[in-house]
Hints:
This protein has three helices and eight strands.
Amino acid sequence: MEIERxxxxxDVPPTMRLARREPIRQGYIALDGDTEVRIRIxxxxxxxxxxxxxxxxxxxxxxRLEAQQGEALWELTDGRRVQKTRRxxxxxxxxxxxxxxxxxxxxxxxxxxxxxAEVEFPDEEAARAFQPPAWFGRELxxxxxYANRSLxxxxxxxx
Length: 159
């Protein structure tokens, strides 16, 4: 189970500009209701992911692939792709909770200018208790238009 919250940022925070960057190509092989099958290709390798559900808590299964398998599946995603650069930072948390990992994604191509932060949580209680830092913008967790699958298929949401 993946439990996360997503936020809109005005830009990559200055403190993260020098953080290690990971370029990511992500495309969707199949979209069916609340279920998606995607391929993600990055310097870390190729991963086939199946997700089911909407919102902050969803089923997620990942399968590592060989590079040639990832590239072959990439061809099936034409018209349903996003490109982004990911940076990661750990957020301090209250004494009784572990640090949280924040992933900041800066999109390119047709989504150029879009920057979002995602925070994954160990459980739903931690997700509900989370107080976003001041540099986070509007919460997007339940805004389906900002789901990666929607961005890949429909492009930038109109506000």
